Amino acid sequence: MSQSDIWTEKYRPGKFEEVVGQHEIIKRVSSLVQALNIPHMMFAGPAGTGKSTLALVVVKALFGEKWKDNYLELNASDERGIDVVRQKVKDFARTKALENIPFKVIFLDEADALTREAQQALRRTMENYTHTCRFILSCNYSSNIIDPIQSRCVVFRFRLLEKKDIVEIVKRISEREKLKLTPDAAETLYEVSEGDCRRAINLIQATASISPDINSEMINMIAASAKPAGVRVVLDYALAGDFINARDKLLEVMLKDSISGTDLIKIIQKEIWNLQIEPEIKVRLTEKTGEAEFRMTEGSDEFVQLQALLASFVLAGQGKST
Amino acid sequence: MIHSNINFVEKYRALAYQDILGQDKAIEEVRQFLREFPKKKALILYGPAGTGKTSLALAAAHENNLEIMELNSSDLRNRAKLEVVLKPAAEQMSLFKRGKIIIMDEVDGVTGTDIGGIPELLRVLEVTKHPLIMTCNDVWQSKLAPVRKICKLVEMRALPLQTIQKLIERVAQQEGIIRDARFYQQLAIKSQGDLRAALNDLHSYAHVESLPVDTHEKRDVDENIFNILRVLFKERQDFLSLFDNTQLSLDEILLWIEENIPREYKNESLAKAYQALGKADVFRGRIYKKQSWRFLLYQNIFQSAGISYAKTSPLPGFTKYEAPKRILKIWMNNQRIEKKKTIAKKYAHLVHCSTRRALNDFPLLKLILKNEAIKKQMKLSEEEVQYLAQ
User: Fold this and answer.
1) CATH code for position B149
2) Contacts of B368 in chain A (CB under 8 A)
3) Given CB atoms, is A290 within the 8 Å cutoff of chain B?
4) What value does the mean pLDDT take over residues B262-272?
5) Of A160, A144, A3, which Cα lies nearest the Cα of B377?
């Protein structure tokens, strides 16, 4: 465990035995590592389920103290284009790894942020450096990764952490940090984090920054304040027929909390079922929402598509649908 | 008063590192490059226009007392010329000064027609005895791939609004121009991070009392767009040539339509119009993705006939149209949350997640980052600490 005061780092497992949950995957990966040879791997699954952690555990097990020299972590959504990724891979792969392990490890996080064309280029890069590097790719859905890359990787599917896993982690942390949790607090943490461990730990640290005595109510309050507010207001304006205000508010919400259109539309999709409109229209709106989300992933302008969606809400407010 | 006919850009060009603002990281990289030369023989400064690429190259020469061999985009672009001009320059020792530096502007201007330009440049890079600094806007285009491989790459980012404002105010002061802060701020906003543009605007607007800077300049440039919108929204007909009378691109027109639909249409026609605009946008996306310009036709039809036929009958009355605002809003917001982004980036790097995720989690991070030890570990700058305290 590292020295950081950020709890997601402080309590990040450093060994296979310390990892909570994902038992099957841990068993398989650790046996690969014991043989001192790993294939290219793909870790697929939701955020906060241990993909980056396991990649770190793997390199620490392989390289011991010298893991930092033999490990390159890249985030596809942060790098500007595949050319940057390739350049970094190239620079990294230029020097040799340790004596007894003939390869280095590259972890490419959020590989599904790459376009298909970029993935093709990545595939060639993987081939070019296959003698000197092993790739671990992470993604939310393996279906967003092109087949030729999938077929070169052993795919591991990560699941959301279960309640008992989160409860165990929370217990560990609260003991070490001398926090006092009410009995239901750990469960509440599980519920609001929805099985996302990073979120659960961030929530507990954020709550603890206010008081070491933690109850459900506080957790709920902090979680609610951290959620992008105002989406409901946007929809209410639209349902009332006030498109211009709905649109202004929409842009304001997106800019204020730096939410992308693809993240915002997920909130809209959930919110539809809380609206006071005919169930049949809810289904139609859901279809529109799905179409807009799909278009965004295909490269359409997020704000244009969101406005088109809001216009459908205006009609829904009058009991009509298109 | 301005009597000199030298423009502000040349007159106030930075000659020392300390005059170049907001690019500390790039300066440090250039310093290191010159210190370590000939470990890497060339360096490429890349980034948007007006961020100080040429100034930094020139400042590097002055600071190190190096003779400058400057090659402009127009000077040499093909193999024969490169061989005659650049190669001897690269191989000969300097006559008067300690050394020489070769500065080559706008290498991305070496196009397909300049046959052999890139291979010859590569050959020159092999033999050169002097450091070579190149500038370009887009370093990631494929034709530069072989050059990229052997050069040190240094990025120069668009300058923050405040930096530009500070700089043009300083120049204005030296020129005896007296305007209020709002004037400078508007110039800075309009420049979109391009200092050269800001200085040129300062030059041209300095003494035009009656003409305040319009941050939506397009309004003056193109009156036609208002007539186009009027026909589009009021009448019902197809007009494939409707957009021929304007200088605006189809994508810019799309923004104008997007802004003004709700000022004309309500309910069904509103929904239909946005559906059409959504489809126009889908085709726009396909054009960019696949580079198939044939789809322009479809974009054109959806954002003309599609919008016009969204209503059932012609609309009477006068409507006041407005210029698109969201691009400016987004840009200004980006300036405002610059610090938030740099904090998120530092945090993301420490905890193995993406900057996007860190931005999403920012409300929680704000609480976590109250911890002084964490601030220290993240090496937050003073401005960043201030941002968190807000």
Assistant:
1) 3.40.50.300
2) 6-7, 202, 205-206, 209
3) no
4) 94
5) A3
Bridge partner list, B44: B134, B153
For testing the chain A interface, which of B270, B330, B332 should be mutated: the one with the most A CBs within 10 Å? B270
Contacts of B293 (CB under 8 A, 6+ apart): B287
Decide if B305 touches A, using CB distance below 8 A: no
Interchain contact A5–B (C-beta under 8 A)? yes
Q: Which of B271, B340, B347 sits opposite A322 (nearest CB)?
A: B271
Q: pLDDT category, A137, cuts 50, 70, 90?
A: very high
**Nearest-neighbour CA in chain B from A311: distance (Å):** 5
Residue B329 within any structural domain of the chain: no
Residues B173 and B57 in one domain: no
Residue type, A213: D
Q: Is A225 on the interface with B (CB under 8 A)?
A: yes
Predicted confidence (pLDDT) at residue A257 exceeds the cutoff of 60: yes
For the record, the structure tokens of B324 come out as 């698109």
pLDDT value of residue B3 = 46
Starting at the earlier edge strand, list the strands of the sheet with A154-157: A71-75, A104-109, A133-139, A41-44, A154-157
Q: How far is the CA of B281 from the CAs of A303, B96, B174, B252, B301, in angstroms?
A: 10, 59, 47, 12, 11
- Checking if the pLDDT of B113 tops 60, the result is no
How many A-B residue pairs are in contact by the CB < 8 A criterion? 160
Question: Token pair 């396991």 is at which residue?
Answer: A54
Say how many C-beta atoms besides its own lie within 10 A of residue B113's C-beta.
8
Continuous H helices in B192-304: 195-205, 218-221, 224-234, 250-264, 267-290, 296-303
In-domain check, residue B332 = no
Q: Is B367 within the bounds of a domain? A: yes
Q: For the domain with range A231-316, which CATH number is right: 3.90.1010.10, 4.10.520.10, 1.20.272.10, 4.10.320.10?
A: 1.20.272.10
Residues B113 and B176 in one domain: no
Of A4, A243, A295, the CB nearest to B377: A4
Q: What local confidence, expressed as pLDDT, does residue A6 receive? A: 94
This complex has an ipTM of 0.82
Max mean pLDDT among A94-103, A110-119, B170-179, B270-279 falls in B270-279
**Contacting residues of A for B371, CB less than 8 Å apart:** 5, 209
Task: Return the DSSP state at B239.
Answer: -
Q: Which CATH superfamily is domain A7-157 in?
A: P-loop containing nucleotide triphosphate hydrolases (3.40.50.300)
Q: CA-nearest residue of chain B to A318?
A: B267
Residue A280 falls in which region: left (phi positive, over 0), alpha (psi -120 to 50) or beta? alpha
Which residue in A has a C-alpha nearest to residue B361's C-alpha? Answer: A226
Can you tell me the distance from the alpha carbon of A54 to that of A49, in angstroms, rounded to the nearest whole number? 10
Q: Which residue has the tokens 């040799």?
A: A96
Q: How far is CA A29 from CA A15, A110, A154, in A?
A: 12, 20, 10
